Amino acid sequence: MLSLLRENIKIALESIKNHLLRTILTVLIIAIGIMALVGILSSVNALENTITGNFASMGANTFNIQRYEFALRTRGSGEVEKINPIIGYREVKEFKDSYNFPSTQTAISFVGTNSAEIRYGDRETDPEANVLGVNEHFLNNSGLELESGRGFTYFDIQNNSRVCILGADFKKALFNDMDPINKTISVRGNRFKVIGLLESEGSTFQQNEDLRVLIPIQSARSIYSQPNINYNISVMVGDKNLFEAAQDEAIMTFRNIRGLSPVEKNNFGIVRSDSLLNQLFELTGILNIAAWVISIITILGSSIALMNIMLVSVTERTKEIGVRKALGARNRTIANQFFMETLLIGQFGGFVGIVLGILVGILVSSIANLDFSLPWAAMFWAIFISFIIALVSGGYPAIKASRQDPIESLRYE
After folding, report:
1. Looking at the structure, do residues 402 and 316 belong to the same domain, yes or no?
2. In a domain, 403, yes or no
């Protein structure tokens, strides 16, 4: 049995070698379909990794009160979207002072600028740094970790201390990989002592998360005093069993601050760390379905092309089939020889498609700054689909070859 299998493989490889150009074209046809599947699924997988990594940094058991919710809505032609008022400093301060739900801590923050130049000595960054004013709970509520140094304390915030925490990229950009702790930087002419360095967060959708400067919120307000600054509130709940109650209490507290009547809708957004991830995963689920639809259409075309090529091969080798039958080859042996050839071509195509698909995923991830990882599930499906393509496409040509009349085959020219 094994010797017959080895002989069939040897004959199939010899046939592939004798018709190299046709084999290469067939392999490429299959590879394109597999490449579409692996490439799209690996890109979607990279997108999911990036989304998970970055929104997990929102912190566990947290919810945010902000101007709008991150929700996708389809609006009719005559419907007008409601404009929510900004969340001002008076409101966030009043919320922090009045919201005292057990086992919670409240962080408040705002973005002073997204285009700051940070100085250290005679060195200066490009105008692309983000400066955030935060309180002492911002790091914990955001899930941020320190590589070195310490975070803000209650006294740093209350005393308006001139201290700051830097993103990971500043270590190289300003300090030539030296330890930045206790060094003094300049932000808009204001000097701040570095007390902490954040661990690297990477980039998300072209936004570098490692070029952030965190300073006490009152210091930030004195530097960035433009009108209509929008603030964010983040609440971390220590006991997950109290999460819903804490969120409801926060909504009621902020509604009272806004002076909303019981019949009025919220004019602010509530964003939960888990619900936001669920919404985004719904989008990636749609992308996965689209990837399968596109890939199945492409693979169906590959199967038809492979079957046609194998039927042409059967016609070309009619006389060879007659000779083998005259020498005693059985119908099953002839069928196995052609089926083995189809199977090898299918697997070659699958392997090439997997390699090309991974390269496409790496390229897309590199361009979009996504967190790429090997798409093991997509690779498994690619191998399985390659086998199914060969099984479906090779079955009919193999049966047709095995049923040919040996006398008519020998007379074929």
Report:
1. yes
2. yes
The answer on 233 and 92 residing in a single domain is yes
Contact 243, 61 (CB under 8 A): yes
> What pLDDT shows up at residue 182?
95
Give every residue of the chain whose pLDDT is below 50, as ranges.
Answer: 71-79
pLDDT of residue 212: 93
Answer yes or no: are the C-beta atoms of 33 and 299 closer than 8 Å.
Answer: yes
Q: How many domains does the chain have?
A: 2
Query: What does pTM read for this prediction?
Result: 0.61
Q: Work out whether strand 231-237 and strand 269-272 pair parallel, antiparallel, or are unpaired.
A: unpaired
Helix 20-56 × helix 331-368 angle, to 10°: 40
Which among 347, 349, 382 is positioned nearest to 39, based on CA atoms? Answer: 382
User: What pLDDT is recorded for position 251?
Assistant: 95
Is 201 in the same domain as 102?
A: yes
pLDDT at residue 60, rounded to an integer: 59
Q: Are 251 and 99 contacting, i.e. CB atoms less than 8 angstroms apart?
A: no
Which residue type occupies 334?
I
